[in-house]
Amino acid sequence: MEKGTKIGQGYTAEVYARSEKEIVKLFHQHIPDFIVDFEFSVSKAVEETQLPVPKVLERVEAEGRQAIVYERITGPSMLQTISSKPWRVSREARKLAELHASIHTKEVDVLPSQREMLERNIRLAEGLMDDKKAFILGILSRLPDDSKLCHGDFHPGNILLSPKGPVLIDWCTGTKGNPAADAARTVLLLSHASVPPGTPAIIRRLINFSRSRLCNTYITHYCKLSGISTGQLQEWELPLTAARLIEWIPPVEKTRLLGHIDELMLAASHS
User: Fold this and answer.
1) What pLDDT score does 176 carry?
2) Which fold has domain 78-269?
């Protein structure tokens, strides 16, 4: 299969422009087939909700690697816009919150359970002793469940600003669950996530400079729109941080998260 010209990359895949209307998301060799199958099926299901998402065209192979062909969306990501125009960070943060709240009005029954996904990831998390896992799982068990559509990896890099409006991409972590957990996951990413590989140094500095303002504005606007309190978001911070340890993240971020988990556990044990 002709994959076209490379236009982007991340921790799990590279993206190629096959034509003016199609892109190929080519997954790295180490990504298991079932993850690609899952993203394909979730993306198909989300497409039926009428949310602004790319059309899912086909599941293919290229150069011995698994790939999904999507409708090509033109326009920069929200992350690129914030990086190049940092004075727009508050405006984009409010837009981020509005898009996230719109996702949480939908339900997709065929998606996996958010709670079960978090439980599995915490049990498999590297660097955590069994007693810490048990403590965190106990906290998770007391948090409320729900059945709303959740993105699972909602951040400015996964929103494309097309001429027709924002488009939501990368649904490989989609679940049904509690919107507060999904929003808290976004707060975790905005606060702690490493900048994608290959990002120029000047862009890295601009992103890190804008983090706090972006995160605080997102929280304020999302809570206003959803009726969810900041306290409800904070309740999910420990389980979500532990669950993130299973992901393909840089060692420096993993070390930072392990230290943050210790801080959160100490606070939880004294509350």
Assistant:
1) 97
2) Aminoglycoside 3'-phosphotransferase; Chain: A, domain 2 (3.90.1200)
